[in-house]
C-alpha cells in the first residue's frame, strides 16, 4: 500500500520527504505539491530578500552569459504570440521578470508594450538600469488591480513557487482581455526520465527542492491547472537535459558539469537555428512533450470568456 499523507484540505500519496516537507500527489489539487504549504508571507520573505543574494547568486550574470541562446528561445515565444494574436495586440506582462531579458527582447523586437513584476530588489534595480518598466511586487489581488489589461501574461518559472497556483491563474485570467494569451513555463517533474534515473540508476529525487519549489507539475497536470479558465493552444517541452544523467554525466551537485551540459544543449539549438532548422527542433520537442519528456513544459493557453458563443464551432 502506498503511504498517504493529509494536511488541511490536501491529501494524497506521499512521494518523497525532504527537509520536513513531503511531496504528495494531491487528490484535491490534482497536481503534486509539498505539505505543509508555506504561507505567502514566508515565501515573500524568501524571494524579496534572500533568493538572488543567497540561493541564486549567479542568476543575473548567467542570464547575461546565455544571451544568444535566450534570444533564440524568446524570439520563438514572441513569434508564437504574434501569430496567435494578430497584428494589433501587443501588451505583455511578465510576472517574475527577473533581470528583464524577456521584456527587453520585446522592446528590441519593436511594437511591444511590456511591463514586469518582480519581487527581488537586485533584479528590479538591474531592470531599471536598462530602462524597463518593472514594479517591485508579487502578483496578488491587490497588486493586480493597479496593472491594467494585457494581451499576454507570461508566467515563466513562477507557478512551481507559489502556494496557490490556481489562484494565480485566476488573477492572470482577470488581467487578460478576451482571447488574450497566458504563457506558462514550469519544470516537468516526476517525468519518465527522472523515474528511469531513480529506478534504474540509484538517483535520489534531486528535483525536490522545498520550500522554493512548492508544486511539481508534469505535462498533463499543468494543463489541468489552466483548463478551467483557458483553452490550451500549444504544449511544448524543452530539451531533456536529464538525458545527460542517463549518459553518465552526473551533473547533480556538480555545477561546472551542469553548465557544460547546458552549453552543449545551447550549441545544438543554435546550430539548428543557424541551419534554418528551428522548425525541426520545435517539432522534435513537441513530440517529446506527448511522451511527457523534457526538462520544462511550456504551455500557451487562450483566455475564455467574452467569446463563449463561438466556442462550439471547433478548436
Ligand atoms: Zn492539494
Summarize the structure.
The protein has twelve helices and twelve strands. With 315 residues, the chain is an alpha/beta fold.
Structural commentary:
The chain is α/β, with parallel strands linked by helices. The chain has 2 domains: 37 residues, no CATH class; 270 residues, 3-Layer(aba) Sandwich (Rossmann fold). The chain is built from 12 helices and 12 strands. The strands form 2 sheets. A 7-stranded mixed sheet has the order 7-6-5-8-9-12-11, with helices on both faces. Helix 3 packs across helix 4. The longest helix has 20 residues. It is globular. It starts with a strand and ends in a 12-residue tail after the last strand. Zinc ion binds next to loops.
Strand and helix layout:
Elements: E1 4-7, E2 10-18, E3 21-26, E4 32-35, H1 40-55, H2 59-65, H3 67-85, E5 91-95, H4 101-109, E6 113-118, H5 121-129, E7 134-136, H6 141-145, E8 150-156, H7 165-175, E9 176-187, H8 192-201, E10 215-216, H9 219-226, E11 230-237, H10 243-246, H11 255-274, H12 278-290, E12 296-303
Parallel strand pairs: 5-6, 5-8, 6-7, 8-9
Antiparallel strand pairs: 1-2, 2-3, 3-4, 4-10, 9-12, 11-12
Helix pairs in contact: 3-4
Distance between the termini: 41 Å
Order of helices and strands: EEEEHHHEHEHEHEHEHEHEHHHE
- Helix count, per DSSP? 12
Report the mean per-residue pLDDT as an integer: 92
Q: What is the domain total for the residues?
A: 2
Q: Uncertain segments of ≥5 residues (pLDDT<50)?
A: 307-315
- The gyration radius over C-alpha positions equals 19 Å
Main structural class: alpha/beta
Give every kind of bound small molecule, once each. zinc ion
**Beta content:** 15-25%
CATH domain fold name of the largest domain:
Rossmann fold
So what's the overall shape?
A: globular
Number of strand elements: 12
CATH secondary-structure class of the largest domain = Alpha Beta
Helix content: 40-55%
Taking strands numbered 1, 2, ... along the chain, how are they ordered across the largest sheet?
A: 7-6-5-8-9-12-11
Question: What is the H level of CATH, i.e. the homologous superfamily of the largest domain?
Answer: Vaccinia Virus protein VP39
CATH architecture of the largest domain: 3-Layer(aba) Sandwich
Biggest pleated sheet: 7 strands, mixed
Oligomer: single chain
Amino acid at each position: 500500500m502506498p503511504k498517504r499523507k493529509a494536511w488541511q484540505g490536501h491529501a494524497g500519496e506521499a512521494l518523497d520527504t525532504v527537509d520536513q516537507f513531503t511531496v504528495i500527489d494531491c487528490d484535491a489539487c490534482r497536481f503534486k505539491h509539498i505539505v505543509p504549504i508555506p504561507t505567502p508571507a514566508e515565501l515573500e520573505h524568501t524571494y524579496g530578500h534572500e533568493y538572488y543574494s543567497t540561493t541564486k547568486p549567479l542568476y543575473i550574470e548567467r542570464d547575461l552569459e546565455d544571451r544568444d541562446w535566450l534570444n533564440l528561445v524568446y524570439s520563438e515565444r514572441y513569434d508564437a504570440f504574434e501569430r496567435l494574436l494578430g497584428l494589433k495586440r501587443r501588451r505583455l506582462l511578465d510576472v517574475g521578470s527577473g533581470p528583464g531579458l524577456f521584456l527587453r527582447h520585446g522592446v528590441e523586437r519593436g511594437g511591444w508594450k511590456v511591463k514586469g513584476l518582480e519581487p527581488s530588489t537586485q533584479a528590479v534595480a538591474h531592470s531599471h538600469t536598462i530602462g524597463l518598466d518593472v514594479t517591485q511586487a508579487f502578483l496578488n489581488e491587490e497588486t493586480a488591480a493597479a496593472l491594467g489589461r494585457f494581451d499576454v501574461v507570461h508566467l515563466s518559472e513562477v507557478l512551481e513557487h507559489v502556494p496557490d497556483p490556481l489562484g494565480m491563474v485566476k488573477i492572470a485570467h482577470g488581467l487578460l482581455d478576451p482571447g488574450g494569451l497566458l504563457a506558462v513555463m514550469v519544470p516537468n517533474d516526476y517525468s519518465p526520465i527522472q523515474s528511469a534515473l531513480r529506478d534504474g540508476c540509484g538517483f535520489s529525487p534531486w528535483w525536490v527542492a522545498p520550500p522554493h519549489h512548492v508544486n511539481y507539475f508534469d505535462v498533463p497536470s499543468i494543463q489541468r491547472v489552466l483548463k478551467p479558465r483557458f483553452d490550451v493552444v500549444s504544449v511544448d517541452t524543452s530539451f531533456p537535459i536529464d538525458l545527460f544523467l542517463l549518459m553518465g554525466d552526473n551533473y547533480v551537485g556538480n555545477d561546472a558539469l551542469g553548465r557544460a551540459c547546458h552549453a552543449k544543449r545551447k550549441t545544438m539549438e543554435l546550430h539548428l537555428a543557424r541551419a534554418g532548422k528551428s522548425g525541426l527542433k520545435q517539432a522534435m520537442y513537441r513530440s517529446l512533450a506527448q511522451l511527457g519528456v523534457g526538462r520544462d513544459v511550456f504551455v500557451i493557453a487562450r483566455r475564455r470568456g467574452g467569446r463563449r458563443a463561438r466556442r462550439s464551432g471547433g478548436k
